[in-house]
Amino acid sequence: MAVDLLLGLQWGDEGKGKIVDVLTKDYDIIARFQGGPNAGHTLEFDGIKHVLHTIPSGIFHDNALNVIGNGVVIDPVIFKKELENLDQFEGLDYKAKLLISRKAHLILPTHRLLDAASEASKGKAKIGSTLKGIGPTYMDKTGRNGIRVGDLELADWKDRYSALRDKHIAMIDFYDAKIDYNLEELETEFFKAIKVLKSLKFIDSEEYLYQAQKAGKSILAEGAQGSLLDIDFGTYPFVTSSNTTAAGACTGLGVAPNQIGEVFGIFKAYTTRVGSGPFPTELFDEDGETMGRVGNEFGATTGRPRRCGWLDLVALKYAVQVNGVTQLMMMKGDVLSGFDTLKVCTAYKYKGETIEHLPYNIEPENVDVVYKEMKGWQADLTGMTEASQLPSALMEYIEFLEKELQTPIKIVSVGPDRTQTILR
Ligand code: GDP
Ligand code: IMO
Ligand code: MG
């Protein structure tokens, strides 16, 4: 059976957690393929909100197993806290439902410190990272120095840990920025968390998923971040350190490209970004403020306010193309209710020329935005359950996007709850 993918098409926080939760009833396995606790995936049901960072968003369902793939980086300390949050759910036997790839890399306390030192030393040029140690951990992975989950089963892993820690300490001293830390406390917390991690089941996930596919199990791969944060195709250097695009699911799970089935691409009806970096349709006016307030646009991991702006079709087309998206899902349509007029960016004026593709550099000094204005809608969408109830102006918006993106919009989300999901 083919493996379906679900990916964010913008700068993250599109609503991946919510939709994975909605789709899980149709899958046997949900598998996270990249990123780490920089992600914050929000699910809402029965009036309660849950934020997951490392654990796949299928964990609340009985029918599915959840795999943390080799492409993920795990901070045992954050992971332990996530598990403790799950303890409040009676009957949720996560030990039976969560499987961890031996090839996933570990975020060490000193990776977090290095992230902080690197950011602090950059001053104005900082990436705006989540300070979870993501960049330094992937650097050690590609530098072939990393410590993997499977290493915890080896006798000498603590020696390797100490050697890497000492190297990190020397590197922290290299940065100008002064970082205060108490290594002893950090390590006590870390080794406690490692014990908890070791109580879970480790697997050779590529083999596990291969056998599952052969046995006819259905698999949904869950992405983190968004295409514009991809290390290769995003707005470099203001990106994360993994491949967030479709190819990342192949390398992050060991799934062969010819085994990929549907590619679900998720986007917000507008655009948000948290952290630094260019954002051509960003709004600094009342409209942007309204989106942020109505959409409750605060980072699920860091609590930082998200920057808001109109939908950018140039960037979205690029993401659809790079990922080979087969079905789209439009989130947060309800947040746009009440605007008289909406704007959609259809082209960029780039160095005096009108272009419809994403150029090498979208810094504000190079790009002016060309907008198409569209009629807004006033109705409150949050109680709607059928596509036939959606206002005509919203249907025009949806149909315009489908035509431009040459891809059907199959889900329209009208609120954060599981039930506020309209299928088309
Ligand atoms: P993710 O990282 O892609 O999983 O997205 P986040 O959880 O970081 O951010 C999405 C936010 O929007 C969360 O607070 C969700 O509860 C919320 N959300 C998701 N879909 C909708 C929607 O259709 N309407 C509204 N108003 N909120 C939504
Ligand atoms: P989810 O999965 C939104 C952003 C950070 C920063 C940049 C690099 O919830 O959509 P990093 O900590 O990865 O080195 O930060 O990427 N970023 C995200 N923005 N949603 C996320 O994840 C993000 N993960 C990282 O804000 O700009
Ligand atoms: Mg998020």
TrEMBL record:
Q: Which residues bind GTP per the record?
A: 12-18, 40-42, 306, 332-334, 413-415
Question: Which reaction(s) are listed as its catalytic activity?
Answer: IMP + L-aspartate + GTP = N(6)-(1,2-dicarboxyethyl)-AMP + GDP + phosphate + 2 H(+)
Locate the active site. Answer: D13 (proton acceptor), H41 (proton donor), K141
GO BP terms: 'de novo' AMP biosynthetic process; IMP metabolic process
Q: Where is this protein found?
A: Cytoplasm
Entry's CDD domains?
AdSS
The answer to whether the entry has keyword Cytoplasm is yes
Q: Which NCBIfam families match?
A: PRK01117.1, purA
Q: What is this protein called?
A: Adenylosuccinate synthetase
Natural source organism = Dokdonia sinensis
Q: Which gene encodes it?
A: purA
